[in-house]
Amino acid sequence: MRGFTIIGLGGLLLAQTLAPYALAEDLTGDPAAGRKKAGLCRTCHGIEGLAKIPIAPHIGGENPNYIMHQLTAFREGTRVHEMMSVVARGLDDQSIADLAAWYSSQDVSAALAPGKTGDMAPEACVACHGADGLARIEDAPNLAGENAIYIDTQLKAFRTGKRTHPVMSEIAAGLSDTDIRAVAEWYAATKIEIAPVK
Amino acid sequence: MKYLLSSAAALALTAGLASAQTPAVPDNLEKLSNFQTTGATEFTFIEQKGEYADGIKKNLERIKMPPGFKIGLYAIVPDARHMAVGPQGIVVFVGTRKDKVWSVTDRNKDRVADEVKDFAPSLQFSIPNGPCFSKDGFLYIAEQNRVLLFPAAEFFYESPDVAAFNLVKKGELIPAGQESFNHTARVCKIGPDGKIYISLGQPFNVAPPENLETNTKWGIGGIIRMNTDGTGREVFTYGIRNSVGHDFHPVTGELWFTDNQVDGMGDDIPPGEINRQTAMGQHFGHPWYGGGTVRTKEYEGQDVPVEVTMPAVEMAAHAADLGMTFYTGNMFPEKYKNAIFSAQHGSWNRTVPVGARVMVTTIDGDGKATAEPFAEGWIDENGEYLGRPVDIAQLRDGSILVSDDLAGAIYRIWYEGN
Q1: What is the pTM of this model?
Q2: ipTM score
Q3: Is the pLDDT of residue B59 over 60?
Q4: Which CATH class is domain B2-415?
């Protein structure tokens, strides 16, 4: 796989990416209110954010800004998904902030697959997503323990333009199907733990 | 590349089968070179005993069925989706929406599986949801964008090195640009005409107008069929949103299928569907209809440019009817002969969840179909899922298997009488 130098670039573009969502960020989310609203989410994402179905990502312990950014994008139609577009359509800014507060307050940890070391992790990804799949920056999702096909699908969506992001679109454009699958399998093999909620 | 060696053996065997039963296998050793090995040649075995199994058995005590029926844990199978029972009765192959196919073996025939391990670990699968068998022992696995064929799978599965062929090469089931993850749980079955029938869900909630031409051409949002050598592909069924289960009526040979209907229109509309197809090329209404006779908002008021076949029976809205099989066994009471057993996965965003049960649909002499719950209790008093049924398959003794991708299990339902 080719390497990419994106660290500096990523930081710059990130500020731009988040700017349009300033409105939602100004709201203070209430985790308790978010927990109640998470009835909408739990069938697929679990009440603590450990996904129950393969097509849904784990969102427990995700950065709140990432969650708010994605829910807003689904609501505005800049990101499209058959299920999420339907769900997000009905969410106001406060609900989005509450859901982000609930899921981001979960306790997440991750570990490399047995026999692997951090220097074997995909070079293009680690600056933002970490070797273990726990995000290092605000606007990146955790990838730890994610189903390989989920990551594969998202990278291909960035490559074809179905999903866009200033950093990810560029990175994905340079990846072959084989590169994508290798990245996906690296993170799928890492182990995620999200503390269960009573 | 160990499997190349066994493939040679497989070819020899296949040739033998071919002369005896004329199954059409592409004679294409070079196609094997298209496969990429992951280097994984060791099996992953799934523990069948212990706390996890005990927890599932406890949940099964809540399941309600008609008098005389019993349910038990058959196997722990992670992410269990659609099932194919081997014609020799040795093994059940189980697909997933991830990257594994599981083989489930009941060696001592006590109707509880003894061994669950991954099938063909040296192959890299992508959403291998749909396994199906031909009567002569060829296993087909429908993936996101490929269909593989495994001769004598019930023999070869004992080794990590299997003989595998392309029925539909990667990237040729649908155009790569149309690939998705959701609505990509493909199902296959071999029809009474010997052709393989494969469902191709369309990935949107409501198919957008700009996709309709491509969908019609490829059979996306439809069911395609082809010969078992990969030739003669044609679109058999149009106007489906996302079908995840089909089977052929044991007497009439007609294709029946479930279809999942449009979301976001309210808790109680549109209805789910079980459909009956009486001729090739029939259209079942999507995207003009969202389920039953309910029109979609996106195409509201527009003339419907096709003749639409309405469902044979309307099911509960959002209950997510998935896998189905016609019952042809001798174990269950007469009422169930040639009835459809189907799985409802359960709703994902309905205010009060519905589904997560096994339904039975009986068809009277006039072809009128009536559905009722058969096994239920996988939604607890807090509205939380304890399990989500996906598919139904029949064992040779006339009992049925139910797969569950939430619990990661397969249950067996049998009849003992009163």
Answers
A1: 0.90
A2: 0.84
A3: yes
A4: mainly beta
